[in-house]
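May I ask for a single protein's sequence together with how it folds?
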Amino acid sequence: LTPAALAMTLLGTTTEQAFEQDYNPEIPFSSQRRYKTITLKNGLQVILVSDKRAALCQSALSVLAGGQFSENESVPGLAHLLEHMVLSSDSQSTFRRRRDFEEWLSDREGASNAFTANEKVCFHFAAPKQYFAEGLDRFASLFREIEVEAVCRDQEIMRREIRRVDLELDFDSVFSQEEYLTKAFVNLEHPYSRFAKGSLATLETIPKERGIDVGESLFD
């Protein structure tokens, strides 16, 4: 498959449905890689990168306005939890039933991960060339609306992922201490001032006390 065909597989469309458009991402002037930009008819922007020196094929999907600043204020950490839910196993999708995506990747010397930033969330994976096409298909299946809705309404998965989010909290590191010290000086009306990592308290205990359906909030 060509890089364009692989991108179309990832984004659930065909080459004929895509068209090139002049949008210019910032590309380092010294880069030896080759770049091509495509905007699909559904508005998704794609950057194709060719790097002959790369050991693995890689793909990333960034969702703007899906970060911490956009989450429901009544459930701090909701965006971070959604990142975990999307990559979690045990949903009813075909690929999840066959094998967990990350387990499938690790068996083929690949890996996946994600991060939730202030204004976006980014999912990414890497795999050897011979497995990349199937990896893109599996990766793309994680983001179908029907699959996201199903996993958001799965209480067992949500309970497990909330605890994984809680385990990531580290108030002893210098980075965390600097972050929360900075938050203490920010205007309280600005979203950066909020606690956005999420914890067992903010994602489970307090919502239960207030009658908030976290699964519904996730999907919304």
The chain has a mean pLDDT of 84. Residues 8 and 14 are 5 Å apart (CA to CA). The chain is about 40% helix and 15% strand. Residues 129-141 form the longest helix (13 residues).
